[in-house]
Design a protein that fits this description.
With 95 residues, the chain is mainly β. It is built from one helix and six strands. The chain has a single domain, classed as Beta Barrel (OB fold (Dihydrolipoamide Acetyltransferase, E2P)), CATH 2.40.50. A five-stranded mixed beta barrel has the order 1-3-4-6-5. It is globular. One of its GO terms (molecular function) is single-stranded DNA binding.
């Protein structure tokens, strides 16, 4: 199963674009910071990931301010010519 749930803030966002099929698309960079217990030790975790949303999710996310916090749910996929996985956002709610 390929499913990711991530609490993160919108660190960077592009303008709304449209796919060749006319579907609205939104590209962003998300940043996560938290503390988690690993091997009995408290560890500070930071992560940044590229993300994309399509359709109504794209139209809603493009209106959100940079720095706003959300809980994103989606899946990971590597673009055809890419080296790193991208989070494809399927749903989100206020964190």
């Amino acid at each position: 199963m390929n499913q990711l749930v991530l609490s993160a803030r919108i660190a960077e966002a592009s303008a709304l674009r449209y796919t060749p099929a006319g579907l609205p698309a939104f590209d962003a960079r998300l940043e996560h910071e938290s503390e988690i217990l690993e091997a009995g030790q408290l560890r500070q975790v930071k992560a940044a990931i590229k993300a994309v949303a399509f359709g109504s999710n794209a139209e809603t996310l493009v209106r959100q301010p940079i720095g706003s916090n959300w809980r994103f749910t989606g899946f990971l996929a590597t673009p055809r010519n890419g080296k790193h996985a991208v989070l494809h956002i399927q749903s989100f709610d206020q964190a």
